TrEMBL record:
This is Flap endonuclease 1. The gene is fen. NCBIfam families: fen_arch. Residues 319-327 are annotated as: Interaction with PCNA. Binds 2 magnesium ions per subunit. They probably participate in the reaction catalyzed by the enzyme. May bind an additional third magnesium ion after substrate binding. Mg(2+) 2 binds at residues 173, 175, 226. Residues 1-98 are annotated as: N-domain. InterPro entries: 5-3_exonuclease_C_sf, Flap_endonuc, Flap_endonuc_arc, PIN-like_dom_sf, XPG-I_dom, XPG/Rad2, XPG_DNA_repair_N. Structure-specific nuclease with 5'-flap endonuclease and 5'-3' exonuclease activities involved in DNA replication and repair. During DNA replication, cleaves the 5'-overhanging flap structure that is generated by displacement synthesis when DNA polymerase encounters the 5'-end of a downstream Okazaki fragment. Binds the unpaired 3'-DNA end and kinks the DNA to facilitate 5' cleavage specificity. Cleaves one nucleotide into the double-stranded DNA from the junction in flap DNA, leaving a nick for ligation. Also involved in the base excision repair (BER) pathway. Interacts with PCNA. PCNA stimulates the nuclease activity without altering cleavage specificity. Residues 140-211 form the XPG-I domain.
Length: 327
DNA sequence: CATCATCA
DNA sequence: TGATGATGG
């Protein structure tokens, strides 16, 4: 879910042209959840191969990345590492909702209510180890690099933008702004070019609100993050009001007292996140033959489609120098 | 979600 | 040619 900052920050509207030639650090778990929840049939059944393995995520990765690369962007995927103990409540709550949704999905199917079935099926999506492994394998075959975060994927991606190794983070969550990512892209989907491709520049966000990065972190904490419960009935607007009134610290103190949480730990998690600083990024030549075995032979994809889609990946091969590298 | 076929 | 709905795996 992430921190709900939407009500106080205005996105810039951009198009793909703006992202051409840019390295985009994509939050892998965030993206995989989107694919798994939305790439489904009308009754909510995900795409599957003959053996019953879920393949929705492979479909999403294949087609979206081919398009991203064709448009001249350079994607890197960032996978979550070990999640913080502070996130335990959030993780537990999500699992509960998932399990509940799975039951409701089956109930809806028995009642032949397809709309409800689809709704609850999408909420029941979960990332199994097989899904994560097969996603990494496909990225590899496409020549797209991925990195394992030490902790939170968003923290790692944000660090990489700060270092200049990526130009922006792509994630649906606003948490990256708390982690200090200079640039964040939302809604990076193929059909987002007309209208809803959102762009946030942290520096401009802070300037416009006239607050510091630390203020933003504290506001996020008052609203509630994956790592702490927020103050009751405090959303983005109220938190911003507190910032303007100079009441952030007293509100944090109140939160600590009322909910018995150590907020210093949460602030530290955002300011000094656990990140992997030793990573390398390299785009490789796509392995089309191997991909055909993996996707078509093993997972039932159409050969024509895979061949056609892989032909869009040519730009990625860093051994093939592009024009700008020559000058 | 992304692609494809179809229809105006 | 672009909007719409079914299909993909």
């Amino acid at each position: 879910m992430g921190v709900k900052l939407k009500d106080i920050i205005e996105p810039e509207s951009i198009n793909f042209k703006y992202l051409e030639g840019r390295t985009i650090a994509i939050d892998a778990f965030n993206t995989l959840y989107q694919f798994l929840s939305s790439i489904r049939q009308r009754d909510g059944t995900p795409l599957m191969d003959y053996d019953g393995n879920i393949t929705s995520h492979l479909s999403g990765i294949l087609y979206r990345n081919a398009s991203i690369v064709e448009k001249g962007m350079k994607p890197i995927y960032i996978f979550d590492g070990k999640s913080s103990q502070l996130k335990k409540n959030t993780v537990d709550k999500r699992r509960e909702i998932r399990d509940e949704s799975e039951k409701k999905w089956k109930e809806a199917l028995e009642n032949h209510d397809m709309a409800q079935a689809k709704k609850y099926a999408s909420r029941s999506a979960k990332l199994s180890p097989e899904i994560i492994e097969s996603s990494k394998k496909l990225l590899d075959l496409m020549g797209i690099p991925y990195i394992e975060a030490a902790g939170e994927g968003e923290a790692q991606a944000s660090y990489m933008v700060q270092k200049g190794d990526a130009w922006a983070v792509s994630s649906q969550d606003y948490d990256c702004l708390l982690f200090g990512a200079n640039r964040v892209v939302r809604n990076l989907t193929i059909n987002s070019n007309l209208g809803n491709l959102e762009f946030y520049e942290l520096k401009k966000v802070l300037e416009k609100l006239a607050i510091s990065q630390e203020d933003l972190i504290k506001m996020g904490i008052l609203i509630g993050t994956d790592f702490n419960e927020g103050l009751y009935r405090v959303g983005a607007k109220t938190a911003f009001k507190y910032a303007k009134q100079g009441k952030l610290d007293e509100s944090i103190a109140k939160l600590e007292k009322e909910t018995n949480q150590n907020i210093d730990e949460v602030i530290d998690l955002f300011k000094n996140p656990n990140v992997n600083k030793d990573y390398k990024i390299k785009w490789n030549k796509p392995k089309t033959e191997e991909a055909l075995i993996f996707l078509c032979d093993e997972h039932g994809f159409s050969e024509d489609r895979v061949v056609n889609t892989f032909s869009k990946l040519k730009k990625l091969d860093s051994s093939q120098k592009s024009l700008e590298d020559w000058f």
